[in-house]
Amino acid sequence: MSGCSGSDGAGGTGSSGTGSSGTGMSAGTPGGSPGVGPVVLNQLPGQAFYVSDQTSAAQQVGVLRSQGRSAEADTLLRIAAQPSSQWLGEQGARDIADQVSRRATEAGRTAVFVAYDIPHRDCGQYSAGGAPDAASYRSWITGVAQALGDRKAWVVLEPDAVAHTLDDCGVKGDLAAERYGLLAFAVQELKKRPNVRVYLDAGNPGWAQAPDDLATVLRKSGIAAADGFAVNVANFYPTDRNVAYGNRLSAALDGKHFVIDTSRSGNGSAGADSWCNPPGRALGEAPTTETGRPGVDAYLWIKNPGESDGQCGRGEPPAGRFWLPYALGLAQAAH
Q: Which end of the chain, N or C, is surrounded by fewer C-beta atoms within 10 Å?
């Protein structure tokens, strides 16, 4: 996403394929090569969330091993062996949700998804796209919910969508009202499934929205029926700062719980404007529900580490594309 917001220029998430200060979301491109399968990955003892062997990182581990690059493969396993999120976008979302949630259930684990198809997505920047209209989005999210059925799943809903309605590059007026309605509809549809938890995206500590203003639009977007909200999606802010930000927002939302994206927060942020593939970052805390912090339901790897934030002017691949040098850097820098 782009995150054009904020007086400090730090809006957005910066993740699997967006823009400006944003999330860079998109679904990403597998990192494997024809004829080279992903490695077989075990589920971690005591881990609640599903470790998929279909991620770009897992596929790239297989490629590296087939090329005899064992040291790099072992380094990349620091990413591939951890549970990360499955992004759902325009293409094949229902089938992907069905397949991944089914595999997770068979493994006795919970799949984590990111629903990312809101109309007018990412202010038309690096992760532009989304459903063409409101009716298409309703059909899309209903299909995702139906695909999950009665399986356990956590869904992070539409990174940047709410916060972008409060910044200079987001949707306004009738389009903003439509977006709030679509998000509330999405929460409602997903919560019809008995074992699905839903977390509405709520920006990050560098985005300049006041907690009360953000709480107001989150209420319009159905937060009351959701399990909580998500912070730091595809950004780099350290956990303590995210906890403080989340607690302030929770206080404005009658104590709603939240989850934190720790996928790339190991070395903290490189600065408010450094959201697009900044060098020197590191993997953060591993995904877990055992956070030891009241109100923080989980640390999650919502942004898939190693996927580009976008073509930021230094030869990077498009948003969401797996980028091996960056992935290795994140893993090598991890504590």
A: C
What is the distance between the alpha carbons of residues 21 and 205, in angstroms, rounded to a whole number? 12
Cβ-based neighbour number of residue 134 at 10 Å: 16
The DSSP output letter for 5 is -
Catalytic residue among 98, 160, 167, 227: 160
pLDDT tens column, 238-288: 999 999 999 999 999 999 999 999 999 999 998 767 889 999 999 999 999
Cβ atoms 73, 31 nearer than 8 A = no
Q: Active-site residue 122, yes or no?
A: yes
The pTM (predicted TM-score) of the whole model is 0.91
Residue type (1 letter), 12 = G
> Per the residue annotation, which of 53, 98, 117, 122 is the catalytic one?
122
Dist CA 332 CA 78 (whole Å): 9
Q: What are phi and psi of 298, to 5 degrees?
A: -170, 155
Torsion of CA 288, 198, 148, 33, to 10 degrees: -60
Q: For residue range 309-334, what is the model confidence (pLDDT) as tens digits?
A: 999 888 899 989 999 999 999 999 99
What are the beta bridge partners of residue 288? 299
Q: Which of 98, 117, 227, 309 is catalytic?
A: 309
Predicted local confidence at residue 303, as pLDDT: 97
Residue 216 and residue 88: Cα distance in Å, rounded?
27
Structure tokens at 335: 């504590």
Question: Is 150 a known active-site residue?
Answer: no
d(CA 307, CA 92): 20
Question: pLDDT (tens digit, 9 = 90+) per residue, 157-186?
Answer: 999 999 999 987 778 899 999 999 999 999
Instruction: Fill in the amino acid letter for 251.
Output: A
Catalytic, 8? Answer no
Q: What is the DSSP string of 261-318?
A: E-TTBTT--S-TT--SS-TT-B--SPPBS---STTEEEEE--S-TTB-----SSSPPP
Secondary element (H or E) of residue 231: strand 228-231
